[in-house]
Queue: 2 jobs
Job 1
Amino acid sequence: MPDDSPSAPPPRDKPLCDLSDLALFGARPLFDAPRHVNRPQAPDRAVFDALLDQVWDRRWFTNDGPLVQELERRLCDYLDVPHCVLTSNATAALDLVIHALGLEGEVLLPSFTFISTAHLLHLRKLTPVFCEVGADMMLDPADCAARMTTRTAAIIATHVWGSPCDIDALQALCDDRGIALLLDAAHAFGGRYKGRRLGGFGRAEVFSLHATKAFHACEGGLVTTSDADLAARLRLTRNFGFSGPDRVECAGVNAKMSELHAAMGLANLAGFEDSRAAAMRIHGAYARGLEGLPGLRLKSPPPEEENNHHYLVTEIDAAGFGMDRDALLALLTAENVWARRYFHPGGHRSPPHLGHSPALPRTEALCARVLLLPAGAAATSEEVAQICRLIRFAAARAPEIRAAAGA
Ligand SMILES: Cc1ncc(COP(=O)(O)O)c(C=O)c1O
């Protein structure tokens, strides 16, 4: 709740002039409530309600219901892939794929990705082999090649920030060894690689439909593949191995998507291109607001990628900006701008993987400078203008802020 009592500091409707105007030094925060990096997108309520009415009328809430089937069909059309299998979340989806392919031994993956993949490998008694990033912040194929052994069973690469990783180079490496390339497309809904929609590459791609993603179903996961046998296996194993009411084909778990989640997915899919356009406008507002600021690099995907623009990624160079990334993060957080370090500190430096991997200097340097800012379709251009003014002020007065914060 905003504090409007007489003793509360005055609201921040005046321009930033002095250090005492910053929340770090006692002023009222710029925003009364946190601004998150990826505030979830809420679909058109009427579209969602109409879908829920169908679910209520049918009393069919889960177990491969009509809305799940419809969402799978629509996703096949949109992503131009033969098989879409929806699940309860992306981590469960990847687990089903790993199990279905019978992977054993070592799996190469980037350290600069969400921790879920490394954890999953660990829990499945596979060995995660963390690899370096390239200049594009993505898994470096040359580093992968250097870390391959006779025990390497697969590569799981991530399309970080919705941009495609170097699929051709990674696929060539996998083809040489006869192993599977799996792609973590959690960030990448709607993106393209060489003109083709992401979702159609590797042995399978896995999307997250978590609420913070560009396209979401509150919670959910999606496997896309051209392998009909793999898709059939996933359909069985997401539902305890059942192929009929009392017929079990194999071991399986409960990784099903419910009808309520599918309703959210369908409603969001209908509005996805509008959301993408809104997120792109937000990206443009940041590009203008931060233009020319020394020591701050904004990552801008090329137009042919058709990136979903859900992530606003900056890199802070302490020498050029005047303060390091963590000092800027502290300043922003105090103002209720909940910027985030990603994927800090890197998978290879997080328990339980810590100590089982050599140092990865390029990944570690990247983890020290990446800062994500509140963005996506649910952000507003006014918020962006205020955040950019704040960041410009921080850069202009960096030496004084550093000294005062130290004191
Ligand atoms: C790159 C990446 N991979 C995997 C996941 C896991 O997705 P889920 O939460 O749907 O299991 C996430 C979630 O944030 C992610 O960002």
Job 2
Amino acid sequence: MTILPATFDAKLFRENSETVLAKLEKHLADQSLRGLELSDPARLIAAARALMTEEREKIADFDEEKLAAIVDLYLATGIQVHSPSYMGRQFSGVVPLAGVIDFVSSVVNQPSSFYEAGQLPNAVERIMADELNSFIGWPAGSFAMVTTSGGSLANLTALLAARNRAFPDYWSHGGAALAGGARPAIAVGADVHYSVSRAAGVMGIGEEQIVRLPLDRDYRIDPAQARSALDRAARTGLRVFCLVASAGTTSVGAFDPIGELADLAHERDCWLHVDGAHGASLLVSDELRGALRGIAEADSLTWDAHKMMFVPAPCTLLFYRNREHSLAAFRQQASYVFDEEPDIYAALDSGGKNFECTKRPMIMTLWALWAIYGRALFAEKIEYLCGLTRDAYEILEATPDFETVHRPEANILCFRHRPAGLSEEAVHRFQVAVRSRVKHQGKFFISKVDVDGVAALRVVMMNHETTTAHFRLLLTEIRKAGRELLHAGAASR
Ligand SMILES: Cc1ncc(COP(=O)(O)O)c(C=O)c1O
């Protein structure tokens, strides 16, 4: 067999896949405490370069050992989402089977913006839209859902739809459509994810056109103060066309009061977008759904399945309450892809509604897990993680050298270590230094965030193998780091 056909050979493909699967099995079975071991970038680049063939003229022979070395290097570096000591970020420890489905997607390569290329992905998008809407509550057939590559892009897409609804000539005339009128603006909670202000920037909405709404003591938008802020914005000539609520802020996992904000938005003819990238998944749990009370009143919702639905990234769902609005973000003609008179096939295309032309059939992983295991897989895992986070909070409350900074509403918990001898002025720097030292100790991966301007340690419980025993071990590790820092005299003054 010459080499080109061999690279596509089905039997070799299976044999090589089995080698890789065996490595993944070992990787998944390793439940040791592994933090984030940061490799020196220069060394990692050198190690990767050393794996490259020197052959330039013809296709190099397949080298089984090289494939094994590539996979080993991949597994050894980077974030260890399957370790029980991984508590650092919102990246998901995926259900491994979802990885297998993603593997199929990669091999069959059926992009999903158009039904004719990706038939099953487009068909099951309809099924998942209906399944998940059963927790939102919109009437069948009245709403729409489109998948898109990440929560950031979903937020941008929803804001575009909101802007085009409020300023119908904007798409064709650009900024000239506003001549002499009020300036477009959006209103966001002070803790909104940066992707929202970035999306505003992309749309030509300057920082001064972003109305930041004050938060209450629980880090949620305060509706009364929001009302005054919107009044003030209107007096300065801003037309707030979209209010963005967060369902699970990135920093502390706070849920804005969606129902009250929906009333406020509707009163002012303003679109309500809910950024539920992190927390929308709580909807599938009977126990936790209440955090998103009022969600059926929102105009659009961003829902990252690659966070709390435990499938590979990206897998984001963008919902619209009014199905017509799903066509509002982009208003283009392109005869090579968009049919003037869609038939029953083209009616399932999402290309007119999402930014991507070639789009990963991301829904396949979510649908396959849902089809095989059903909703309870997700509900049970999310309930466990949120319960674990509440238990961790109680542990901290009962531990004098730690301070909680909020009561967790989901699976994100921020706190500070305050050992005796730490001066008040040093608290901020101390948390930053502790986090960095814990990271370098290599057993736990946690993050940090500023809360009320002072750094806090942050855990995001994403792995159901993590228990309160692991959390107590983490506290021991933090104390050890703290002692060493205090001993060295750094950060204590
Ligand atoms: C609340 C919130 N919105 C949006 C995003 C961005 O989502 P993505 O990383 O999928 O682009 C994040 C990511 O952490 C988030 O926490």
